[in-house]
Design brief:
Elements: H1 2-30, H2 39-60, H3 64-69, H4 72-95, H5 107-110, H6 112-129, H7 134-157, H8 159-171, H9 177-182, H10 191-213, H11 218-231, H12 234-253, H13 257-281, H14 283-302, H15 309-316, H16 324-327, H17 345-372, H18 377-393, H19 400-414, H20 416-423, H21 427-438
Length: about 450
């Protein structure tokens, strides 16, 4: 009896110790607003924790995060994005005469991935130091996503809960009355783009581990996808693409046709039940999904662009002319600086910095994923497809929420031995592992 009580007390103490870390993770992922609409303010908050933690690590002589930071894939990613950011600033200065503030150079905004990477490295190391191995670390993120799903479902059932989500949307600067009425579920700063796609990617990663390693993640996947489905349609496309790649590739590699068919059946049945529930409790979100299916069917059967496709296709075909295609114009179309607007990330990046900027950041991103997911080609392909879809929907490289999952999962997988050693408190042995992982 005494031993059992001691174990329970130890478990409670462990949870209390981990709770601030989980809150820190929640903020880094979802960045809920504090009533200040400036994106710079959000980035300042994301930079504060690394500064404080970095000072503490330096005073205690702990080199663990520094070693991960200087691993080749991580450092190459950071340097490439910093180079791209300064290149864009040069293009803006060369093409304009009326730059009146540092903010207009977009150095901070275009370097947001640096802040995300540093926060992720601290999070991974703190998870290891609080007894999490690599899969438990992933499950913490999955837990946070599941909690969002439960909150979103409650919002679909209870109007007062839905109103809380709407207040977060308005606090972040959202003003679209149609979106406020039909969507906005959960707690975040970017509901209809980053949150829905992030949850779809997270669910796709969970499906990969569930099939590959037989992890019991079905309930979590359903909860995570609830937030995605209630906030938009692109998340469904992302999850469908990822799950198709994962299910077919993994089971074909094992020559396991029955397992593949069973997984497909589970996904289809789960999706059908989800649609039924949406039709009952979130009819506006349900109508949006049905419109997406109708527009897609029209595209493939009649070769006609309707709905969002009628906007997406012309925007994809919009490119700079002449030398501007190579060097860029220093103009972000999202802001309607040229009297035309597009959400598409690739198009915006092409006008901002041309092919030079696109080559710097996109190639660096792909190489980072390849190096860190070396033993997981299926997940690599699924994440690349998800990134392509996300960048069609919006500016992926400006979203801290999306960048988190694209950085966290690969580094988590890449540094499994390192985290095991740190969780045992053996920093000396971890030093050798870190050096090996950097090769």
């Amino acid at each position: 009896m005494a031993v059992a009580r001691l174990k329970q007390a130890s478990a409670r103490a462990s949870l209390v110790a981990r709770f601030p870390l989980y809150l820190y993770m929640f903020y880094v992922i979802y960045t809920p607003p504090f009533g200040v609409e400036s994106p710079i303010f959000k980035l300042v908050l994301l930079g504060t924790a690394p500064l404080v933690l970095g000072a503490f690590y330096s005073l205690s002589g702990d080199p663990s995060v520094r070693r991960m930071l200087f691993a080749r894939p991580v450092m190459a990613l950071i340097l490439s994005f910093l180079a791209g950011s300064f290149y864009v600033a040069i293009v803006i200065l060369a093409s304009r005469q009326n730059v009146v503030s540092f903010d207009e150079l977009r150095i901070v905004q275009n370097s947001v991935i640096v802040l995300v990477v540093i926060n992720v490295l601290f999070i991974i190391d703190l998870l290891a130091k609080t007894g999490h191995d690599w899969i438990k670390s992933f499950e913490v993120v999955l837990l946070l996503g599941s909690a969002q799903g439960m909150f979103a479902i409650l919002g679909a059932i209870i109007p007062a809960v839905h109103d809380i989500s709407r207040k977060f949307y308005i606090a972040a600067g959202g003003s679209n009355s149609w979106v406020i009425q039909d969507r906005i579920y959960g707690i975040s700063s970017d509901f209809t783009y980053a949150t829905q796609i992030y949850h779809a990617i997270l669910a796709g990663c969970a499906l990969y581990f569930m099939i590959r390693d037989k992890r019991p993640y079905l309930t979590q996947i359903i909860l995570v996808m609830a937030t995605s489905l209630l906030n938009g349609r692109t998340g469904l496309l992302v999850f469908a693409a990822m799950s198709s790649i994962i299910i077919v590739t993994v089971y074909l590699s094992r020559f396991n046709l029955p397992g593949m068919l069973l997984s497909v059946a589970v996904v289809v049945i789960g999706g059908t039940l989800a649609f039924g529930a949406m039709g009952e409790y979130a009819p506006a979100a349900y109508r949006q999904l049905m419109a997406f299916f109708s527009d897609t069917e029209t595209l493939f059967t009649s070769n006609e662009y309707t709905g969002n496709y009628s906007v997406l296709v012309p925007e994809l075909m919009r490119v700079p002319e002449g030398n501007d295609l190579l060097f860029g114009e220093g103009v972000r179309l999202y802001t309607q600086a040229r009297g035309e607007r597009t959400d598409i990330g690739f198009t915006n990046d092409l006008f901002v910095g041309g092919l030079i900027y696109v080559f710097l950041v996109y190639i660096a991103f792909i190489v980072f994923l390849r190096r860190t997911l070396k033993g997981h080609p299926v997940l690599l392909l699924a994440l690349l497809v998800a990134a392509a879809i996300a960048n069609l929907k919006g500016e992926m490289f400006r979203s801290t929420t999306l960048l988190f999952v694209f950085v966290f999962v690969p580094i988590l997988i890449s540094y499994k031995p390192l985290r095991r050693e740190f969780s045992k408190g053996n920093a000396r042995d971890a030093k050798g592992v870190a050096n090996g992982a950097a090769e």
